[in-house]
Each structure stands twice: as C-alpha cells, then as structure tokens.
Amino acid sequence: MPVPNFETVEVTTDLLICGGGMAGCGAAYEASYWAKKNGLKVTVVDKAALDRSGAVAQGLSAINMYLNIGNGERTPEEFCRYVRNDMMGIVRQDLCYDIARHVDSSVHLFEKWGLPIWRDAEGKPIRSGAWQVMISGESYKILVAEAAKKALNEAGMELYERVFIIEPLMDGDRIAGAIGFSTREEKIYVFKAKAVLAVMGGCVHVFRPRSTGEGLGRTWYPPFSTGSSTYFTIRAGAERTCEDIRFVPVRFKDAYGPVGAWFLLFKSTATNALDEVYTETRKPDLAPWEPYASTKPIPTNLRNYQGILEERDGKGPLLMRTERAIAALAEAYKGDEKAFKKKMKELESEAWEDFLDMTIGQANLWAAMNIRPEQMPSEITGAEPYFIGSHSGANGCWCSGPADLAPAEYNWGYNRMTTVKGLFAAGDACGASPHKFSSGSFTEGRIAAKAAIKFILENNTMPNPDPAQVEEFKARIKKPFEIYEQYKDYGTTDEVNPNYIVPRQYLFRLQKLMDEYAGGWSQNYATNKYKLEHCLKMLEWLKEDGEKMIARSLHELMRVFENIQRTWQAEAHVRTVLAREETRYPGYIFRADFPKMDENFNCFVNVKWDRNTGNWEIIKRPVIYIVD
Ligand code: FAD
C-alpha cells in the first residue's frame, strides 16, 4: 500500500472512553445515564468491534467474582482478606472493597440481559469456587456489548470502532484527549475531551510464548491486549503500581485451556509424572513464604512455584487427573447402570463445554490428540507471563480510592482518577486491585465513569491539546509507510533490509530478550540484577531500532504501535523488578539474587515516567489495610 493520504477527523466530547472491553462497556452503560442527565457527551473508541473485543471475546465459562451479598453468601470483608493473601500482602483493599460491594448488581444485569447462569434445583447459582459462578458464556461479550451500545444509542452518545489509540493528548498536566488511526480507512482521529477513561486492557506477547511455528500467536490472555493502557497512562505521566506483579497462569498445555473448573468444580488433583501430588510433597519448599504458605487457598503463585520446581527437577509433565475426578464424581451412581451412564455423559459434556465456552482451541487439541478426559489425564504447565490488573496479576495505574473507604494516602480526589488530572482507569488498567475479573472490571468501569462525569461537572472547561504535539503524532503515524517507501528497493526480499525493521522481527527480539533476561518460561521465571540491567540496555537499543519499523498496510501499522506500547510495558516491569530486591511471588518471578521475602518490601513499589525529562522514578508507597 502506498503512503496513505490520511484525512484528519476531529471529535470533541466531554468523556472519552478508550477501550470497549468489559470495563469500557460498564463505563459506557453507566456514563450514558449520567451524561444524558447532565447534558454531557460520551464517546467510546475501540480498536476492534465491541461484540467480540478484549479478553472476553471468546466467551467465558464462569463469572469469577460474585458475592451474592443479598443472600448472605459472601461479604466484601472476606473478599478483601482473600485478595490480600493471594497477593502476598500487597493490595489496595479500599479498591477491592469498593468493587466487592457493587459487583452483584452488575452480575444481575448480565442475567437480565440474557446470560445463562447455572442454577441448582432451588435456583441457587452453581458455584465452581468461593467467588465463581458457572455460566453458559460463549456469547457473554456480545450480550454485554449489546447493552452498552443500546445505552449509548438511547442517550445519543458516540461509538468509534476499529480506531487504534496511539497516544494521550495533554494540556500541561491535564489530560486533553487522545489520538489514533482507523485500522480500516485512511483516517487519523483527534479526540478532545474534558476527561478520559483508559480501559484498553492488559498486555500479552511481551515474553516469548510457549507456542511456536504454526501455533505462534496462541496465548492464554488474548493476543490483542497489547499494553495500550500501560503505555497511554505512563506517557500521560501517571504513576503506575505493582508493575512487578505479572501473572503466570498454569493451564492445559499447548492450548491454554482453563483449569479452574477442573480444580474447583470437578475437584480434580494434579500430579507429577511419578504420580505424586506435588502440592503435598512440595509443602516444605514454601516455608520461606509464610504466613501466606499456610493460608487457604494457597496463593496462586505459590502453587505455581511447586510445579515449577517439579519441572525443573525433571519430574514433569504435570498432569491434571481428569479421569480420576470424573470417576470420583460418578462413583455414587455405580450401582445403577442407567444412572451411572447418564452421569458420565453429563460430566463428559460439562468437561468439553468448559473449553467450548472460553477456549475452543483446547477442545480442538483434545480431539486432535485423541484425549478422552474420562479415561486419561492431560498435561498442564505454566504459560509465559502476562500483565493484567484484573485477574491474578496486579499491575496498573495508582488510582485514587473511594472517599468513604480510602485512607488519606490513597485518596486525592475522584474515585479511580490516576495521578493525572482528568485521567481515570479501570479493569486491567487500574492496579493493586486484582481478582475483579470480568464482572469486577465491568463494575469498576461503572464506578470510574460515574466519578469521571462528576469530575467533568466540577471542572467544566475544555482543555486545549498542544497543536504541535498533534502534528508530531500525525507524522509518527505516517512514518512507517514512508520508511518502507523510501527503502523498499534496497533488498531482494521485503523481510531483510539494512534500513528498516519489520514489526514481526521487532516482536521476536522483544520476546527473546524479555524471556532470557527478565525471567520468562525458558528461565523457570528466574532473573537477577545483572540480567535485568542487561535487559534494560537491550530494550533501549530495541527502542532505537523501533524508530525504523515499517508498515505496508493499516493492519501492520497497528502492529507497529502495539510493539511500541508493549516495549514500554516491558520497561516498566523490568525497572520495578529491579527495584523490588526480594522474591515475594516465586511462582511468578524469582529474583535469584534475593531469593526470600523481605519485610522491607511490605510496600508498593511504584514507577513513574517524567514527561518533561524522560526519566523514570521509583516510588515506595505504604500498604494500608482497611480490613483486619
Ligand atoms: P478487556 O475486556 O480486555 O478490554 C480491553 C478493550 O480495549 C478491548 O475491547 C480492546 O479491543 C480495547 N483496546 C486495546 N487496545 C486499544 C487501543 N490501542 N485503542 C483502542 N482500543 C483498544 N473473568 C471471569 O470473570 N471469569 C473467567 O473465567 C475468566 N477467565 C478468563 C480466561 C481467559 C482466557 C481470559 C483472557 C480472561 C478471563 N477472565 C475471566 C478475565 C476477564 O476477561 C478480564 O478480567 C476482563 O475482560 C478485563 O476487562 P478490561 O475491560 O480491563 O479489558
């Protein structure tokens, strides 16, 4: 494609919601109501189409956060304790509590909109764990997107799909909007806004994935979560938290199928190849991580660590004993052949549905490998690390908490506002409040949007983005096409050229250096100061070469910016891991030079990039619990 002749489209709005995933849809739903009431305008922009965008695109088989407070099932206090233990003490309970007290109402909305929640004979939701309820969720995102679009439509608000946001626009220290380009048309979008909500999800493909060759691109978290929330908010000058806390999910090997239903609903165990239940035999290895090692459930990362040790010692593969779990569940029906057969069929179909609802590829793999879960076990293993503030990782923006719950140190104004005036965050983009998952992200989007509308009403002036900045970003969007046009005839193949780098090659370099130096799966998730410092140098050089990335289509242009944004996520991570001189999450990241937990790090290690000097700053913040 020749250098596009981009048309510039200017959009002026009150609240700009960047991202239409779970948090974005929650925000759109809530903001439409409050904006209409107050004569304001809301605009949602997403790089994809809302119906199938973000981490819920493939569907889910469970809603992982539902308290059912009304029926006395769970309390926000219990939730805060649970998250505190799973995160080895590092958590913002004010944020967690805030989501916990509101999340049920969102789940009730999902059901009202048509999402089937599994219920027992008495009508009680079927739980697969303490916080999870089972759903038939293949179309979960479609239902939620439909409701968000309806709310926007009925309130006369705007939605832009297939527009990729590349940068924030600033007016001094206040957010003033965002700039992006269409992935389908030759258009650059300049959005001016009084407040911006960053809800562009988490980050995948920073580390070399386990999948290679024809499987490349297969990851557990969606490959289209590419660090936009992190990049956008860092570049606006926002302080970030928990950038060291990446998530390493243990999943079914090669297709990353979920294990939650197996462990929690089917009550399955996992063993090593010698048929030892390694979570039992490896208990003594967790001693350095007391008191968390003795909590119930054992923190996710500690269970991972036990598996990592098994594989390191050659006792892998780790095996999910599906055949034993199914046999145990059908045991009670054994005397009655008809009932037994029926139960077995039911269990078998539940096992397959779990994958078909959210990770169809795993069902394909089972079929291709002739795996019958009722007859044989399946391999599980640790994935490459991901950055997700909504799941069991915790990185994201350092946000102001709710006025009625947050201690003074965590409250500087509007709920979920970052440290940048007018910039809000939710879902994967809001840090230190993990385990909110799909329902909690939707809920947090609602909370943040309501607060953002309040901010607009109380700060009702339109900021002016610096025009020079806008021109600079427009030039940056064009540049990858221009480089290609200038140098395309220097080589005999498009892929090898001394004057430019193809986005795919850039991605491989990023993944290799992060895997080898920042503790990817090939290193058993371990690293040290020397490696991390080397990694920073390599990232600097990669960034230099990134200036020469090319694009030959609008789709490849998106790849260019995804890579740039991922690289900033990588750098924020490496800098924070370097600063946290201890090993607190051995199953996520192991500092071999500081192999134990250190009470001097019972704190948040935050990071901030200075927009004026380009320097990074590390800031320690206290952990203050609001629940004992
Ligand atoms: P997302 O929902 O990912 O939304 C991000 C949005 O931002 C997307 O629409 C994306 O297109 C858009 N975007 C990204 N970059 C840009 C850009 N540059 N410009 C414009 N738009 C952009 N939760 C549960 O409750 N139960 C489960 O069982 C469960 N299992 C999961 C299993 C898997 C495999 C995955 C991937 C997730 C699972 N989750 C589960 C977690 C849940 O999906 C997330 O917590 C939730 O989707 C996070 O919401 P979010 O809005 O922050 O991000």
Model description:
This protein is α/β, with parallel strands linked by helices. Among the domains are: 250-382, Alpha-Beta Complex (Flavocytochrome C3, Chain A, domain 1), CATH 3.90.700.10; 467-606, Fumarate reductase/succinate dehydrogenase flavoprotein-like, C-terminal domain (Methane Monooxygenase Hydroxylase, Chain G, domain 1, Up-down Bundle). The chain contains 16 helices and 19 strands. The chain has helices spanning 22-37, 76-86, 93-112, 140-154, 228-235, 260-265, 278-281, 300-312, 322-330, 337-358, 360-368, 437-458, 467-487, 503-517, 529-546, 554-579, and strands at 7-18, 42-46, 60-63, 133-137, 158-161, 163-171, 174-182, 187-198, 240-241, 250-252, 270-271, 318-320, 378-382, 396-397, 423-425, 526-527, 590-591, 603-609, 616-622. Strands 1, 2, 5, 6, 7, 8 and 15 form a seven-stranded mixed beta sheet that branches. Strands 10-13-12-11 form a four-stranded antiparallel beta sheet, covered by helices on one side. A two-stranded antiparallel sheet has the order 3-4. Helix 5 crosses helix 16 and helix 14 (503-517) packs antiparallel against helix 15. The longest helix has 26 residues, at 554-579. The relative contact order is 0.17. This is Dissimilatory adenylylsulfate reductase alpha subunit. It comes from Thermodesulfitimonas autotrophica. InterPro entries: AprA, FAD-dep_OxRdtase_2_FAD-bd, FAD/NAD-bd_sf, Fum_R/Succ_DH_flav-like_C_sf, SdhA/FrdA/AprA, Succ_DH/fumarate_Rdtase_cat_sf. GO terms for molecular function: electron transfer activity; flavin adenine dinucleotide binding; steroid dehydrogenase activity, acting on the CH-CH group of donors; succinate dehydrogenase activity. Pfam families: FAD_binding_2.
